[in-house]
Amino acid sequence: GKDTHVFAWDGVSFSVPADWNLSSYDYRGPVISVTLEDDEAVRLDVEWVRSKTRVELPLVAQRYARMSEKLQKSAACMEEMHGLPSGWMAFLYTMPDRRTLVTAFHVTHTGRLFCFVRVHGDGAMQKEPQRLIRLIVSTFRTHEDVLIPWAFYDVAFSLRKEFHLASTAFLAGRKHMVFEWRLRRLYLWFFSLADVLLRERRLEEWAADFLNHHKEL
Description:
By secondary structure, the protein is an alpha+beta fold. It has helices spanning 57-67, 69-74, 129-139, 194-197, 203-212, and strands at 4-9, 12-17, 21-28, 31-37, 42-50, 77-81, 88-94, 100-107, 113-121, 141-142, 147-152, 155-160, 164-171, 174-181, 184-191.
């Protein structure tokens, strides 16, 4: 609905509150991570990796239990969330200062993609974490078809999965993305306020002038 929007990035998509937007992303080898925030603070961290070997959820749960011992000790209380879609496990931590943290992890039915999610809440969001994580996991999708959706800010498009993201430059009113596929390089620009940019110039004139002044070209 109007209170949410779909975020899609490099083969993964899910719904988030309308005021959560991309603040950073990172590629560390096969691991892809994104961070979303609202006007006040970071609200969501998501990491995913595609594995060449099958990943089993029970083994992931055992490893997580060992890695989260310090977090459990520092929390005022911890509870496991139930009733989640297949392949998901989630835990709600409430800190002594009333901040909350929901951690969730997911293994797809093929066992080839593993995802780790963290939802951060403050004292004012105590009633929200469970609703938010259920929104994310219930709408979480992986995309393995020929065309992969991308959606963030006011941008939305689909692109062949062979293209890999090489660089970005997100500025006010202008989003620039560069993709690569073998010896091909694809440049995408998205401009806001087209009615202002084209008020006194035809589209072809404006586009030719912009491209002629672009250093990479």
